[in-house]
């Protein structure tokens, strides 16, 4: 971090500022110019508030020369991370296909979808047991029973399962879930992130619909700071002024995140678009731009789905898309 001081700063104020920065465990390299003084801060400055520092008397400007995130910085960790979930690998050239219903509704429903997506080549089964819903009157999942039914589907098909966790108190219920999903609404639930940093399970971290990439990576940093480095990032669309899709899928985030971090990046085109007709094209685009996987909502009878019916593919549509995804992924890597 570089701190540029105002030309009229007093010598006393300058020394006070330097002493305060050194008191934060930083080395301060002072460069005296003919008009200005520049302080170069060496060490971990991630906890420094740039805006607060820039507002101090005698400070003209503050600029970071390195990212505030260290554990998930590609600059610090140049080799791409590979996160393994059972037999499934994310990152490092591997591409994973996750599919399943938005919500687990019944034993018959989840088993039928699990069999179908397995036959189509899916690597993992998704299914929500606890569903955060905008309306309190919408179906919000079967809870613990939904997790039990996911376990049945995994036992029959062999597919590892991913499901969303919403609070620290739910952690004991997720012991048999292979990949714990932090949803968009929980991306900055720092208490939950800290607890997930202490467990030995991979985490799928979704970008909040109003979050910057830096904020997403700082949330990943919260998990990794606790010792859990098995984090997968998920781009699932951001809120813009568009009124034709549920969100706007920011596919530029995929290559940008690959430049910024070593962590795998997948895409959820279902929540991004909110329309089943757009899921296929955007999933193919995600595979083409270098995503490490996609997560797609699939339901045996989409019009009757209890959650997010408009964006779900039926099993036949998913099977056709899976074939095209493999072809695009192969072409993109050629």
Structure explained in plain terms:
The protein has 334 residues and is α/β, with parallel strands linked by helices. Helix content is 33%, strand content 18%. It has ten helices and 14 strands. The chain has helices at 11-22, 50-54, 107-119, 144-157, 190-196, 213-225, 253-260, 269-273, 276-288, 315-333; strands spanning 2-5, 27-32, 37-42, 59-63, 83-85, 88-90, 96-100, 124-126, 161-164, 179-182, 203-206, 231-235, 265-267, 293-297. Helix 6 links the parallel strand 11 (203-206) and strand 12 (231-235). The relative contact order is 0.12.
Radius of gyration: 23 Å
Low-confidence stretches: none
| pLDDT averaged residue by residue | 92
Secondary-structure content class: alpha/beta
Helix amount: 25-40%
Major pleated sheet: 8 strands, parallel
The H/E string reads: EHEEHEEEEHEHEEHEHEHEHHEH
Count of distinct strands: 14
Instruction: Tell me, briefly, the overall form.
Output: elongated
Strand content bin: 15-25%
Biggest β-sheet: strands ordered side by side in the sheet: 13-12-11-10-9-8-7-14
Number of H/I helices: 10
**First and last CA, distance:** 40 Å
Short description:
This protein is α/β, with parallel strands linked by helices. 33% of the residues lie in helices and 18% in strands. Helix 3 (107-119) packs parallel to helix 10 and helix 9 packs parallel to helix 10 (315-333).
Set out the fold topology.
Blueprint lengths: L1 E4 L5 H12 L4 E6 L4 E6 L7 H5 L4 E5 L19 E3 L2 E3 L5 E5 L6 H13 L4 E3 L17 H14 L3 E4 L14 E4 L7 H7 L6 E4 L6 H13 L5 E5 L17 H8 L4 E3 L1 H5 L2 H13 L4 E5 L17 H19 L1
Parallel strand pairs: 7-8, 7-14, 8-9, 9-10, 10-11, 11-12, 12-13
Antiparallel strand pairs: 1-3, 1-4, 2-3, 5-6
